[in-house]
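FYI - complex with (S)-3-Hydroxyhexanoyl-CoA, inputs then prediction.
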Amino acid sequence: MTAINDVTDLTVDGDIGVLTVDSPPVNALSANVRDGLATGIAAAIADPAVRAIVLVCAGRTFIAGADISEFGKPPRGAAFPEVQAAFENSPKPIVAAIHGTALGGGLEMALVCHYRVAVASAKFGLPEVKLGLLPGAGGTQRLPRLVGAKAALDMVATGKHIGAKAAAAAGLIDAIVDDLQGGAIEFAHRILAESLPLTRVRDKPVLGVEDGMFDAYRAANAKAFRGFEAPAANIACIEAATTLPFDEGIAFERKRFVELMSGLQSKAQRYVFFAERQANKVDGLDPDAPLLPVGSVGIIGAGTMGGGIAMNFLNAGVPVTIVETRQDALDRGVATIRRNYDNTAAKGRITAADVDARMGLLTPTLDLDTLSAADLIVEAVFENMDIKKEVFGKLDRIAKPHAILASNTSYLNVDEIAAATSRPESVIGLHFFSPANVMRLLEVVRGAKTGGQVLATAMATAKTIGKVAVVSGVCDGFIGNRMLGQRQQQANQLIVEGALPADVDRVLFDFGFPMGPFQMADLAGLDIGWSAETSKGATIRDRLCEAGLRGQKNGHGFYDYDAQRNRTPSPVAEKIILDYAAERGVNRRQIDDAEILERCLYPMVNEGAKILEEKMAQRASDIDIVWVNGYGWPVYRGGPMFWADSVGLRTIADKLAHYGIEPASLLTRLANDDKGFTGAV
Ligand code: 3H9
């Protein structure tokens, strides 16, 4: 074996040169890796003993892409196009041996090899679009030459991965092998024995081009791609592959790549990529410390939340005992879980056997004592402190030592709940977002006495069930709802002062949210937390409820809904708003879109600054992850704190003062120092 550099080596096995990249964690194409590939391929070509070459990676995966952390920095090391040209034009055949994930630049590297083989578990994709980019190393020009225009279009525009079987069927790989390196070497021998050609993907034609296919694709996906710049650029590049000669297509792709790379959207999406991984790390906790076992889970409450939470664990193969107080509620909860699974199976996303396996892991019961065996118990009962305390008092007697006792509260004081037990160190908040089986965010609420091992186990468990976990301290509404409260307060004031609900909703929708606050209120139900007996008509929402408007559920709220749920602003709601304002002597005025946006979003940023100051969030990027994953903040704007940095904290502090809101001291300090929250803009 010859070491090429510290991440690449070359071994000659008979007449096959095996070039191995070993650059943990994911063999990303850093300057070092590119240097190793450039020198390694030259050495293999120069070695007279070598007749064919295998490119393989050590560790958990093939090359997972360009090294994203190098983007935007001064270039170093061998240029990637030159490395690729050396492979593609090699006089000796090269086989890429793929395991794990061949993604982005990794797949583009494999596409300049003459042949590709993979183990059955390998996955393939050009996910650059998820980073606000497009494959910038020939991926958009070579992929359609192998798999056809249609399949390539979908892969680049959505970033979806495909498995080895699909890749083989599509022509992306030439064989599936059992033994990665052995299988690739065997394939290389076959090339030599059969004198197979040095196939260059670039020389192939693009197949499967249909008239109007690009416009049809754009139209069909307009909703999913709304606001994003990268999907259109990806589509344009595949289209270019169908009309331009290869080298012109490459130039077209390169230009679009550089445009996207230098734009704010991609910067935001790359920031979110790293922020999401950072969020799972808890400052001050030893990442290698042993965790508590989570082999079985108990859930108290089989309502919408309890059922959704249960599904997360069932999906991950963890047995769940779900407890209710009444048989009918229990039956309803279990039936809902089954229905959800049946629906997923009907869409072909899981098999009927998966449904049975998951339901087989679920034990419904009315007996709380059954939870004595559970490693983790999640309480998802009514949001009322007395009830929660009662439940935790009981759990304290029932649960085994070291079981984790979690509350799914969305704003109640976790320390007060913990104080109802004799083991506050075992108590933690796990705030799932509705629908809990779908939403990726999990706020992990660390109480004053929550043990480090309990917290670390909660973070690891979140990963196991596919959630993005963010640690929050104990404060009203934690990170997300606390900030949402500020937005809601401003939205409510804006409609009194002169805007209409549809104006506020439109501005936030145009900003990139899936819906605005009044649409959201209608969807959730206006009568949540409202009671006819105690209603005093103190708020617009009270009055809407008093007038029988309940939101989407009865077709009338801030909007009227038809049978297809199309909405039009409600004249009844508008009159209620105008009367409410008139009673308060408000002289309604025209409010422009800029004011609506600033007043909805700047106070959220201000609250985020307070959350940081109070150390309720570990870092500004954690706040962004909460908003991107839990509240529909457009990922291409990075989250409220990243976005605030892009607007400029001076501007935000001044505008807050202009609107009569005192800027948080952290915000003022950073603005005065001309700094940002994230250091990423
Ligand atoms: C590209 O290729 C552009 C080209 O077209 C054009 C070039 C001119 N770079 O996710 P994990 C780190 S764009 C740097 O927890 P998993 C990650 O931050 C790229 N670092 O593991 C983490 O670090 P830490 C296209 C990277 O097993 C550690 O690796 N490729 C990169 O759950 C483990 O990551 C992509 O978009 C990278 N490319 O998932 C693929 N990738 O431990 C992006 C990962 O310090 N990557 N890291 O927190 C992924 O999708 C997943 O990481 C992967 C593994 C599926 C590979």
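The longest helix spans residues 593-613. The mean pLDDT is 97.
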